[in-house]
Design brief:
217 residues, alpha/beta, Rossmann fold, seven-stranded mixed beta sheet, 7 strands, 31% helix, binds guanosine-5'-triphosphate, binds magnesium ion
């Protein structure tokens, strides 16, 4: 009889996902348990689009051209299961509101920024944070502040460049180098940076594999 593989090492990334809930206050977070993978980054960097690309579902997370689209912590979990394949340990993807400039009232932006920072620094079931950085802009001051917060809280994070389709290959190589150098001495940074495009799907499979590998680790 086959034994169940609970490591997740050989399991495929789930093929079907569903919205679990939106959270507007830390007190409303779902019970800790499933390994959480959060997507953080400046407003409009492409967090919601990246989750849709990963999950192969166009409208799972709402994306928009208006910075400040996502205003809650949105939890997504795998739906259904295929008994013919090894199961992954329970996991959730968490789409976060962006930090920095947003087209929303200041009081609202301040409230969700506090929510995001509180979540990032104090969620024990947070397995890894993907910090998304626009490939055209590289790390900004506010990104560095978030990295410092994660280093201090000892929360493991990995940088993901987004919108790679918008830069030339040489520019992408140079922003990768610069970003790698900038995080080299950071305590909680996972060393490999993944360059992605939700448009061309560059790096999306690599990111899926990184999530599955981290779940097993
Ligand atoms: P907030 O929720 O407002 O913080 O934004 P977000 O980080 O979730 O960004 P979102 O996914 O809503 O995308 C913002 C805009 O960038 C949308 O117009 C997307 O279509 C566009 N976009 C996202 N990813 C990519 C990408 O890889 N390439 C290109 N060309 N555009 C992208
Ligand atoms: Mg969003």
């Amino acid at each position: 009889m086959a034994t169940a593989d609970s490591s997740g090492g050989n399991a495929p990334f789930p093929g079907s996902w569903t919205f679990l809930r939106g959270v507007v206050a830390l007190a409303d977070l779902p019970p800790a348990g499933p390994a959480e993978f959060a997507f953080a980054g400046r407003s409009n960097v492409g967090k919601s689009s990246l989750i849709n690309a990963l999950c192969r579902q166009k409208n799972l997370a709402r994306a928009s051209n208006t910075p400040g689209r996502t205003q809650e912590l949105n939890y997504f979990i795998p739906s259904g299961s295929s008994s013919s394949q090894p199961a992954l340990p329970p996991l959730a993807l968490v789409d976060l509101p962006g930090y920095g400039f947003a087209q929303a009232p200041k009081a609202k932006v301040d409230a969700w920024t506090r929510l995001v920072m509180g979540y990032l620094a104090g969620r024990p079931s947070l397995k890894r944070v993907f910090v998304l950085v626009d490939a055209r802009h590289g790390l900004k001051k506010i990104d560095e502040e978030v990295l410092t917060l994660l280093d201090r809280a000892a929360v493991s994070y990995r940088i993901v460049l987004t919108k790679a389709d918008k830069v030339a290959a040489s520019e992408l190589a140079s922003v990768l180098d610069r970003t790698q150098e900038a995080i080299r001495r950071r305590a909680a940074a996972f060393p490999g940076i993944i360059a992605t495009s939700s448009e061309t799907k560059l790096g999306i499979e690599e990111l899926r594999e990184a999530i599955v590998a981290r779940l097993a680790g």
